[in-house]
Input
Amino acid sequence: MIPRGKLILLDTSVVIELARNKATGKAILGELDVGGRPERPLVSIVSLGEALALAEQWAWGEEKTARLREIFRELVVVDLSFGKTAERYGRITAHSRAQGLGIGENDRWIAATAADAGAHLVTMDKDFDALDPAFISRTLISPTGPG
Output
């Protein structure tokens, strides 16, 4: 459990599960107390773009896409121009390339946003494993829910 008072940044994979509104998404809401935290969870603007692209690609339709947009309205969307996010992205990218890590560009931006905000990254992707704890702190959620 991530302590109250600690900022969390939700990865795209987590937001998608919340929008699906099925067992895993409901478990995430309960376990992380997303709605009850005194601080609103953060999300990168990159995740907004990724999620909307996926909704379009998967032909989610109006109702589910509206739910996705509502979730983003409940979160604090952090722009890439925030603080020193670009500098963090540069460090993460250089490290990833030097280590031969196959971390995608969007994931590097999301990690940089979390790092710059001092937020704990909540994800369902193992892509971030190689960055924890040198650049970010993260919680990995399994597809069956937090564990």
Summary: The chain has six helices and five strands. The first strand starts at residue 8 and ends at 10. Residues 8-140 form a domain with the Rossmann fold fold (CATH 3.40.50.1010).
